[in-house]
Design goal:
The structure holds two protein chains of two kinds.
Chain A (H helix, E strand, L loop, with lengths): L3 E10 L2 E2 L1 H10 L4 E3 L9 E3 L19 H10 L4 H12 L4 E6 L5 H9 L21 H10 L6 E4 L5 H14 L5 E8 L3 H9 L20 E2 L1 E8 L6 E9 L12 H14 L8 E3 L6 H15 L4 E3 L2 H4 L6 H15 L1 E2 L15 E2 L4 E2 L4 E8 L3 E8 L3
Parallel strand pairs in A: 4-8, 5-6, 5-7, 11-12, 11-16, 12-14
Antiparallel strand pairs in A: 1-2, 1-9, 1-10, 3-4, 7-9, 10-17, 13-15, 16-17
Helix pairs in contact in A: 2-5, 6-11, 8-9
Chain B lengths: L1 E12 L2 E2 L1 H8 L20 H6 L2 H17 L7 E5 L5 H11 L8 H6 L4 H10 L5 E4 L5 H16 L3 E7 L16 E9 L8 E7 L16 H6 L6 H9 L3 E7 L2 E8 L10
The chains are: A alpha/beta, B alpha+beta.
Chain lengths: 391, 274
């Protein structure tokens, strides 16, 4: 099956606005994690994008105002992305370009604020609260579609931390069936009390900046990010070579003990791309920094790749950006392809001695032609994507 | 254009307790009596997990299981796409209430049940399936978006796909944000259309304009308030045509666009070409 082309890409996270800034942070091994002080929560570290509180959406889009859509807007205005979509729009027509984006919590921060302003007597939410433009999952998809002036189908995928990874699969389906000629794919997730306190309740927040694969790793750091790509059947640019999706069928929040779902997703992606494991030059792990996830993923890496293929997690830079992790790390994969970079895990002193995969902890250079990126979410939702360099 | 065959169907709603029991109502052969019956606790889950599921997840698992059995596919034996506008409102409301307190103590179980794909997760856990199980949330466009995604997945992957669309009312005070009538869900097992294949077929086209030639509301006037008041029940016109074994054309609104749906009673040409 022929691969699809990525003709435009933008990303914003705590490590930078845009591809250049993101690459500089990766090359210079500069983390974006800072002590958490968000919404009254002071647990662990976070990867926070500065300035979202004072950003204003363009007036015609004011209906969609919330932290998540502000970050999405920032990404659309970066890396010439909106301009690239405008060119595609004049080429294909506005009704031929779809939007497939992932998010786990959309604009739920706005609901958290509204619940604090409930009517003291009746408990009703404030009248000015607009859930459809913020809290609702579809808010992100409607916002991106409106901001880019598109009239194609809009889908919002919400499979927890696999959301924006999985979005690439549905985007592929819309392109291959001819429903769309181009698809804006990606996603956004932003800081909120729900995830900060929820992961704390699960005792998964690290008291220090997360250090995936370290022997002393102590949990994850939550981050926020938005990223979008323009996916087309033809054109010049890096390629989406394959994908694999699976379920653990095991537990809502604990990974599968034998890593069966992760193995199935990675093998599915290789099979779809028609590649042997040796053809992959680098694997960007889900690598959250929790003891269970990283051990499970190491097991999956060994089963699929043995000890040969370099792999690492870049969450030591950005934090775990939850539903946006798939597209953020897809953008990292494209940077690795473009610049011949293998970024070693950040903040790792000693790799867990029980691990058998080839975990890298220092940056390395060299030809990088194909990168696999993993995203795993609650509900046992798994997604592996393979990207190839522009030919 | 996407063409798929319908291998099996599941249904649960007020006065619609299961697909096979509801076919006479959908065909207009038995009067519709709007009696709400809660969906049963999912037998496929262990007692611990069963206790953790609320109305929304039970609704989804009930219709997903019925459609799978009707299709002759073991539950969990094919890929799936779940879709819901509201998700599990009881869980979200409880979490939001807790988070507004001075010293919030969040329940870990409530938190992992708050993911929009909770029903997809419980489905794969309950059936022991390791196949893809996705989830969409598209407000009032959820039915059209999910049918489009599931149809595209069946055609591209050349494999059957379970589509499960469900919505339950949100509790106070969230209910004001998206008024939802009753508890309604349906599921279809879709497969790539094959020449000479049996059973109803669907032809799907997307058009970037709102006004279409097809109908939107169910034939039966008694079902129209449900179709107008629950995002998942916007499917009722299509479900009627499948139950009646009749050719029909309808559309699902997707923002300022629409999904055109042609139902054909067998694998012959779509109801009306073009």
């Amino acid at each position: 099956m022929s691969s699809l082309t990525i003709t435009a890409c933008t990303v914003v996270s705590a490590i930078g606005r845009g591809l250049h800034a993101t690459f500089d942070a990766l090359r210079d091994r500069r983390s974006g994690l800072v002590p958490c002080d968000f919404g009254g929560v002071t647990i662990g570290y976070v990867g926070r994008v500065p300035g979202l509180e004072s950003r204003v959406l363009p007036a015609p889009l004011a209906f969609f105002d919330c932290r998540n859509n502000r970050l999405a807007q920032l990404a659309l205005e970066t890396d010439g992305f909106a301009e690239a979509v405008a060119r595609a729009r004049s080429r294909y027509g506005d009704d031929r370009i779809g939007v497939v984006v992932g998010t786990s919590t959309s604009g739920i921060l706005s609901s958290e604020e509204a619940y604090r302003r409930r009517d003291a007597a009746t408990g009703a939410l404030p009248r000015d609260f607009n859930a459809e433009g913020s809290h609702d999952m579809y808010s992100l998809g409607c916002f991106v579609r409106a901001a880019l002036g598109l009239r194609g189908p809009a889908l919002v995928v919400s499979t927890a931390c696999a959301s924006s990874g999985r979005a690439f699969v549905d985007a592929d389906h819309l392109l291959r069936t001819g429903i769309c000629d181009a698809v804006v794919v990606g996603g956004a997730d932003t800081l909120c009390r729900m995830t900060l306190r929820g992961f704390a309740a699960l005792e998964l927040i690290s008291p220090v900046p997360c250090r995936p694969c370290d022997a002393e790793r102590s949990g994850l750091s939550i981050g926020e990010a938005a990223g979008f790509m323009l996916l087309e059947r033809d054109g010049a640019g890096p390629r989406l070579l394959g994908y694999g999706v699976s379920s653990d069928g095991h537990h809502m929040s604990a990974p599968h003990p034998e890593a069966a779902g992760a193995i199935a997703a990675m093998r599915g992606a290789l099979s779809r791309a028609g590649l042997r494991p040796a053809a992959i030059d680098y694997v960007n792990l889900h690598g959250t920094g929790t003891r269970a996830n990283d051990a499970m993923e190491d097991r999956a890496m060994q089963a699929v790749f043995g000890a040969a293929t370099p792999c690492s997690s870049t969450k030591g830079w950005s934090g775990h950006t939850l539903g946006a992790a798939g597209v953020l790390e897809a953008a990292v994969a494209l940077l690795c392809l473009r610049h011949g970079l293998v970024p070693g895990c950040l903040g790792v002193e000693t790799v867990d001695q029980a691990f058998g995969a080839r975990i890298v902890t220092a940056n390395a250079g060299g030809p990088v032609r194909r990168v696999m990126s993993n995203s795993f979410g609650f509900g046992g939702s798994n997604c592996s994507l393979i990207f190839g360099a522009a030919s | 254009m996407i063409r798929v065959a319908v291998l099996g169907a599941g249904l649960w709603g007020p006065g619609l307790p299961g697909w096979s029991d509801s076919v006479p109502v959908l065909r207009g052969e038995r009067p519709y009596a709007e009696v709400a019956v809660p969906p049963p606790p999912p037998a496929m889950l262990s007692p611990t997990e069963r206790r953790r599921t609320g109305l929304a997840v039970r609704l989804a698992l009930t219709v997903a299981a019925e459609a799978s059995h009707a299709a002759g596919i073991a539950p969990g034996g094919c890929r799936s796409i779940f879709a819901t506008a509201n998700g599990d409102g009881a869980v979200i409301n409880a979490l939001l209430g807790t988070l507004a307190e001075a010293e919030p103590q969040v329940s870990p179980t409530l938190f992992h049940n708050s993911v929009h794909n909770a029903a997809a997760g419980y489905w794969s856990i309950g059936t022991g399936s390791q196949l893809s199980a996705s989830c969409l949330g598209c407000h009032d466009a959820t039915f059209g978006a999910a049918l489009l995604a599931a149809g595209a997945e069946a055609v591209v992957e050349q494999a059957p796909v379970l589509l499960c669309v469900y919505d339950a009312p949100l509790p106070f005070p969230l209910d004001a944000t998206h008024p939802t009538r009753d508890t309604f869900g349906f599921a279809l097992v879709l497969a790539p259309a094959a020449d000479g294949g049996r059973g109803p077929h669907l032809t799907l086209r997307y058009a970037g304009e709102p006004a279409g030639s097809g109908e939107r509301m169910p034939r039966l006037p008694a079902l129209r308030p449900l179709a107008a008041g629950n995002a998942a029940a916007r499917s009722l016109r299509m479900l009627e045509a499948i139950a009646r074994g009749e050719a029909d054309r309808m559309h699902a609104e997707m923002l300022d666009g629409r999904l055109e749906i042609d139902v054909a009673p067998c694998s012959t040409a779509p109801a009306s070409a073009g």
